[in-house]
Amino acid sequence: MRNVTRDNITDTFLSYFGDDTNPRLREIMESLTRHLHEFARETNLTHAEWNQGLDILRQAGKITTPQRDEFVLLSDVLGLSSLVDMNHSSTSGTSSSVLGPFHISNAPPYPMGADLRGDYEGELILVQGKVCDPDGNPLGGATLDIWQTAPNGLYSSQDPEQDEYSFHALFTTGDDGLYQFTTVRPVSYTVPTDGPVGTLLNATGRHPWRPSHLHYIVKADGHMPLVTEVFPDDDPYLDEDTVFGVREDLVMSYKPQKAADFPASGLALSGKVDSDFSRVDFDIVLTPVST
Predict the structure, then answer these.
(1) What is the DSSP string of 206-274?
(2) Is the pLDDT of residue 91 over 80?
(3) Backbone phi and psi for residue 208, each to the nearest 5 degrees, phi listed first
């Protein structure tokens, strides 16, 4: 095509695809290009604005490390990560939520009932629940990859003072599908603002805060894996999460308990708790894989 114009460039681009292009790749690229070209036409995008957008991507590449993925964070604050989650979230199971940029793979296995606090101080919470299918049948052998921030609001991958797997654990359920562990109550925190994501948030008058939460990746044979988060109902940022991760069924309550109510057995801290604590009850429903 020698006479490429503002009006025909999109169709010209699409005509260049080879006949052996993967159909799904063609579908995605056609939609992406049509929306992207229309965006440039609708906004009458300037060279300076176009280059500024490219610079955000350049800076994201420079700041990204194995411990911090600025591209994931950018996707999060734009709402894209949550939208992709919602595209494929099950209607019969617990809602999914964003993975976030700070997950560390290969968390160490812990016995059920372990305490994740290490040497950190903070409000003690007992987290417990059941992993089950949509009919309420318990799922034995389910794995729960759990992680959270320390009381200073930082994940271990952000904080050189923490051990690599601080506040990370992998639990496996028994035949009853039950899980339980103790930890410190997570805190609200800000996403990193020292990179292009922070520049974008500042430019659009947005805050960087996330409500406090616990992260879960839950897997069981024959069921769809679940990536999700659990949020307290009293967090001030519950209705304005900067990465759009809150779902109604992921909101729970911290229930105040007396020390005497702490379980007498089954937990690493059984018989050792002498002050009040809070209990979190959260059941997880996994959706069977379609056959």
Answers:
(1) ---EE---EEEEEE-TTB--EEEEEEETT-TTTT--TT----GGGEE--EEE-GGGS-SSSSTTTTT--
(2) no
(3) -100, 15
- What is the mean pLDDT of the segment spanning 9-33? 96
The predicted model gives 62-71 an average pLDDT of 90
Looking at 3.40.1190.20, 3.60.15.10, 2.60.130.10, 1.10.1040.10, the CATH number of the domain 74-285 comes to 2.60.130.10
Q: Are 17 and 33 in contact (CB under 8 A)?
A: no
Answer whether residue 243 shows pLDDT above 80.
yes
Domain spans of the chain? 9-45, 74-285
Cβ atoms within 10 Å, residue 117: 19
- Mean pLDDT score, 111-134: 96
Query: What predicted TM-score, i.e. pTM, was given to this entire model?
Result: 0.90
Q: Are 204 and 212 in contact (CB under 8 A)?
A: no
* E strand segments, 168-243: 168-172, 178-184, 189-190, 209-210, 214-219, 226-232
In 3D space, the residue among 255, 245, 222 whose CA is nearest the CA of residue 82 turns out to be: 245
The phi, psi pair for 209, rounded to 5°, reads -85, 145
